[in-house]
Amino acid sequence: MRISKLVSRWKSQSLAMQFLSMGGAVSVCAMILIGAFISDRIEDTVTSNAAATTALYVDSVIAPLLPDMQRNEVLDDTTARALDETLGQGALGDRLLLFRLWRSDGTLLYANNGAAAGTRRPLDDMLKTAFSGQMAARFMESGDEDGKAGPSLPVLQIYNPVLQPWSGEVVAVSEFHEAAGEFQQDLLRTRLHAWFAVAAFTFVFFILLSAIALRGSRTIERQRHALKQQVGELSLSLSQNEALRERVQRATQRATALNEGYLRRIGADLHDGPAQLLAYAALRLDSEILRRASTPKKTRENEIAAIKASLDEAMHEIRTICSGLVLPHIEGASLPDILQQAIRAHRLRTGTSVCLSVCAPPEALSPAAKICIYRFVQEGLNNAYRHGGGIGQAVTQRMEDGLLVIEVADSGAGFDPTKVRPASLGLAGMRERVESLGGTFEITSSKAGTVLRMTTNVEETKKQ
């Protein structure tokens, strides 16, 4: 569980933080490894160079004093005293802590620390390297060389091959230990410089890589954020499209039901109005009054006049119904003209007055929006006349934050909008028309009157 939490926490970090954490750890490890490698190489190189210098100096001083090493088991007293005097005074006396001379079979030919000459021991790795013709050197942090150096003093051990002058053959190995206090300080400074250089290079390299990674991480985060926003917008659009699809589907179903309702209402209006009048006229035409030849002329004329009046009334009602069904030519009309035409038609039908208020109307509307507005005002005024008695009828148009608002109001007794039957064709038809444009339909009613309000986006209506 703890590992999974750590992994989750790691994944939740940004790419820049992941790089800084992992890259920092890798850089530190690499710095330690490279620094240790370079430090060791520097120590080996500096030790070899210092040993070579010392060996060359010692060799130049000691070599003239040495006899033929191949034939002597030990050095004679004269050579030993000469070496003692040379190694005990001057520069060599101050620098050399121990000097030994070895033969290839492990025999100790000379030692300045009082060791018994002529003793033999197995060759160690340093002696073997020197007898192979290569100088060997080793730096030790502390040494104990015949009491001249305490255990805390550093020592540079050098094994230098002694060559036969005419053949170049290794005939002996000189082992000498040098006091390395100054050498240790120089080596420490060199190590510090090397570590500082490695650390500085690693730091600069890591900073540059971090800057590049941080820039890339920011770019990725911006792209990820933009992509997330686009995905969110697409998801919102999809949800809106789905809602619109369901809304359109419901509107289509309601529109089908409303069309059937409109047809039934038109059929009822024709049946209850013109059809009754025409049936009445047909019955009067078949009456005995017109059939009998003995009917007085005055009575016949009165009957014919009644039939004509019934037919005229039927024609008037048919024209009224048709005028409500047929739209005037509004395709090229402006919004104020459309409102005025709807009010004019209502005034001709009902003989009532309507107040009109127009404020900053939009210049262009789609044909669908014009039809919707005309039908909204027409049906709203019809309802105001039918249910509100045509009192205080008013039509208002205004703009609110880019939205077109049209209101149809009256000062009638009002009603309870929650008690409107679903089968009410007028209000339901207005709502369907307005919502089909993506607008909203509202009803506000009280004892002071009723207000029908439609709100729609002008820019959206232009696209339809």
Question: Topology of this structure?
Answer:
Blueprint lengths: L1 H11 L2 H48 L14 H11 L2 H6 E7 L5 E4 L13 H7 L4 E5 L14 E9 L6 E10 L1 H105 L2 H4 L5 H29 L9 H16 L4 E4 L8 H22 L5 E7 L2 E8 L14 H12 L3 E7 L2 E9 H6 L1
Parallel strand pairs: 6-7
Antiparallel strand pairs: 1-2, 1-5, 3-4, 4-5, 7-8, 8-10, 9-10
Helix pairs in contact: 2-6, 6-8, 6-11, 9-10, 10-11
Describe the structure.
The chain has 464 residues and is α+β, with helices and mostly antiparallel strands. Among the domains are: 14-192, PAS domain (Beta-Lactamase); 327-464, Histidine kinase-like ATPase, C-terminal domain (Heat Shock Protein 90), CATH 3.30.565. The chain contains twelve helices and ten strands. The strands form two sheets. The chain has a five-stranded antiparallel sheet with strand order 2-1-5-4-3, with helices on both faces. It has a five-stranded mixed sheet with strand order 6-7-8-10-9. Helix 6 runs antiparallel to helix 8 (297-325), helix 6 packs antiparallel against helix 11 and helix 9 (335-350) packs parallel to helix 10 (367-388). Mean pLDDT is 79; it is low at 146-151.
Summarize the structure.
The protein is α+β, with helices and mostly antiparallel strands and 464 residues long. The chain has 12 helices and 10 strands.
Biggest sheet layout: 5 strands, antiparallel
* Helix proportion range: 55-70%
Number of helices: 12
Instruction: Give the rounded overall mean pLDDT.
Output: 79
The level-1 CATH class of the domain at 14-192: Alpha Beta
Poorly predicted regions are: 146-151
User: What is the name of the CATH topology of the domain at 14-192?
Assistant: Beta-Lactamase
Q: Report the strand count.
A: 10
Say which CATH homologous superfamily of the domain at 14-192 is assigned. Answer: PAS domain
Secondary-structure-derived class: alpha+beta
Oligomer: single chain
Strand order of the largest sheet: 2-1-5-4-3
Large-scale geometry:
rod-shaped
What's the architecture of the domain at 14-192, going by CATH? 2-Layer Sandwich
Rg value = 59 Å
Terminal residue distance: 58 Å
β-strand percent reads 15-25%
Helix-strand sequence = HHHHEEHEEEHHHHEHEEHEEH
